[in-house]
UniProtKB/TrEMBL annotation:
<keyword id="KW-0732">Signal</keyword>
<dbReference type="Pfam" id="PF00149">
    <property type="entry name" value="Metallophos"/>
</dbReference>
<dbReference type="InterPro" id="IPR006146">
    <property type="entry name" value="5'-Nucleotdase_CS"/>
</dbReference>
<dbReference type="InterPro" id="IPR004843">
    <property type="entry name" value="Calcineurin-like_PHP"/>
</dbReference>
<dbReference type="InterPro" id="IPR006179">
    <property type="entry name" value="5_nucleotidase/apyrase"/>
</dbReference>
<dbReference type="InterPro" id="IPR008334">
    <property type="entry name" value="5'-Nucleotdase_C"/>
</dbReference>
<keyword id="KW-0547">Nucleotide-binding</keyword>
<dbReference type="InterPro" id="IPR029052">
    <property type="entry name" value="Metallo-depent_PP-like"/>
</dbReference>
<protein>
    <submittedName>
        <fullName>Bifunctional metallophosphatase/5'-nucleotidase</fullName>
    </submittedName>
</protein>
<comment type="similarity">
    <text>Belongs to the 5'-nucleotidase family.</text>
</comment>
<feature type="domain" description="5'-Nucleotidase C-terminal">
    <location>
        <begin position="341"/>
        <end position="488"/>
    </location>
</feature>
<dbReference type="InterPro" id="IPR036907">
    <property type="entry name" value="5'-Nucleotdase_C_sf"/>
</dbReference>
<dbReference type="Pfam" id="PF02872">
    <property type="entry name" value="5_nucleotid_C"/>
</dbReference>
<feature type="domain" description="Calcineurin-like phosphoesterase">
    <location>
        <begin position="39"/>
        <end position="268"/>
    </location>
</feature>
<keyword id="KW-0378">Hydrolase</keyword>
Amino acid sequence: MWKKQKVLTLFFFIILVFPIVVLASESLYSKDSVEVQLLGVNDLHGQLNTPLTYKGEKVGGISYLTSYLQEYEQKNPNTLLVHAGDMIGGSPPISSLFQDEPAVKWMNYVDFDVGTLGNHEFDEGVPEMQRMLKGGYHEDTGYFTGSTTPYTTANVIDKQSGSSLLPPYIIKEVHGVKIGFIGVVTTDTKDYVLSENLQNVEITDEVKAINKAVAELKEKNINSIVVLGHVAAKSNKNGQNPGREFVDMASEIDDEVDVMFAGHNHTYANTEVDGKLIVQAYSYGKAFSKVDLTIDPTTQEITNIESNIIYTYHKGMTPDNQTELLLKKYDDQLKYEYKDVIANTDHNIAKKPNKNGESPLAQLISRSLKEEMDADIGFVHHGGIRTNVSAGPVRPIDFHTVLPFKHNGIVLSMTGEEIKSVLMAQWSGEKENILQFSGMTYDWKKSAKGVEVSDLKDQQNHAIEPTKHYEVAVTHYLANGGDGFKEFAAGDVLREGPELVDIVINYVKKNGLENR
């Protein structure tokens, strides 16, 4: 609300006091064209107060992102603020420990005009996703008013009704010109979200859903169409070498689509493919997309498009005061138990695998899982680990930042042959997906037939026997086939434990951080 009121007040003041300035700005909405600015954000993941670095300079954090968005909105009153999903989920404690309500409250404050769902909006199931959008009660946080952002998702189908769970498109009118926005989420969502959390919906083919929505928009004489897709894309900084799924889809998508905002793979895209602009602004508020449209008010067609990716550098920008107050409110509510020092380290414990493919942080987590769950072997997937542990005092809140997903520990009974099948699955997809483990060793090599796994041994250096049963500790996410590891589903559940983050915190309190 604030942005529209502020811009309109300034606009009428200028009309009354400085009419000559109005004449100079008529190019924004002349008889021949209307200049519309789209500002796009993707993959924020509730990163409200975690700045990053880009080329040695600080970027990110919603206090600075807000100031940038305000500044650009004030340059053009014909601005729409949009996002391409994953605005919540996988969030640090300041958002995740409050059910991501702080992130949604910030989105309400900056007043997004249109948004779509990402896979992480489904992390806690469809009912919780709908509570975030429409409001409702949660036992941990009480009543929440919900999101003020209109959401569109054309390819998420309610199985009971057979219709789109959310509107397949949203039409926005800006100074007499109408723009259609179509939302889609990647069909790969099934690989990142527990099947139980998607049981009431079906995610259909992105291209078919987009083209169906385009046809309906064309019937309404909407000729300027934008897709908000939580679908991966990338390109070089000069627009060359475009790639990933959204780029591959471009030629199959109706030519009436002019702009495609991408997301999901957290990288850079600013490229034209098959006459369609595709943009993506990294993730975590490090940058945002700026797309300028020139639209003919008579034909309602886009006649020109210019785009840029704007980095949210801290230097030279003042953080937004109201956003700072919102952050302080939630930081003050974090319990002291999250901030007590439980260990110290004189070096960073890295998430990134080393040259041997081993991640020191993932090794710590798999070891914690194995020992705290009293199992023979522990496995963790790398995608659930969101950041490093920094050198210095280590607190529970640090591990809540590392492991924001509410995945419980589970012990499975698996045969040696089933464990080998899990290991083989690391190379069964289009790219390697290496699990981190504790309590065993194995060898692997690539050959003309593919990857061969051999010489599986337990912690006592005994051969893992194909028909013998072993107790394998994983998260319930992996146990249900998460991250593409459907082979874990062959195991029988022996027992369940607490959330993975609590398992790791308890282990570190007792054993410290060093390898054992």
